[in-house]
Amino acid sequence: MSDRIVFEDVSKFYGEILGVNRVNLSIPPGITSLVGPNGSGKTTLMNLMTGLVKPTRGRIQVLDYKTNDPEKLFQILGYSTQFDAFPKGLTGFQFVYSYLRLAGRDSQSAEQLAWRVIERVNLVDAAKRNIAGYSKGMRQRIRLAQALAHDPKVLVLDEPLNGLDPLARSEMIALFRSTAAQGCYVIISSHILHEVDVISDQVILLSNGYVVAEGQIQNVRSEIQEHPTQILIRCSRPRELAAKMFEDEHTIEVSIHKDERGLLLKTRDADRFYLALNQLALNGIDIESIAPADDDVLSVYEYLIGNEEAVR
What we know:
alpha/beta
């Protein structure tokens, strides 16, 4: 039995327009975030993964299932798209229940499963209300409930945090984590790069239809040797520390923090910097804290793609 979601040399063109090109991926269990600006290929990759579009070339396999057999595939896969559209007149319960009935569940089983998943997304009180009266966050949750209703092994969510307030976002993230902890493959897309740091076990960075990096974000960052590492140091004598740091040939830039309690340093050799800093601390400079200032998705994406596109 395959335990991965696999893309082998996959490309998708819409006429002459590139969707994704030459994608090779092996996605493990846990939470995987597809990261990139609008138009980078995230939705195309999800539609390929769920069999909603066919690749122009290449092979895709979702665990033991082929994407050209949707009836079997959707027995183990749930998909919540980014499109905020619902059949008219349905309540939240009817939306989930009718999906389960279409999936082949009998009425009693469909009702039990619908209420169970509606409770899981914290929408029991609103379940009998028309979806047309739901808030943005409630509509996101009822779509998620439908995708989760049949207890899928793979959960694909296109921009699930888009437009949510902080409380709803926190609840969603907790739900993603609990679902992944149960062994589910949770695939999330986002163009809000800083959010995926707190969600993801691994990330896939896309730009203009190409995969430009993948893996745990710290590992991706460590492989970018041609770009400097930024480090924030809080200390008692930042100007003295800055002068010492400039003596190292690998130091590129040092700036004093505006509160005069620290400095931001750029270095080509982080390991050498940390060794030097240990020695300086032994010589009397009081070091309060040291933290990488760019060990996150946004910074890595800026390094790989360029600042203008990364924050668009």
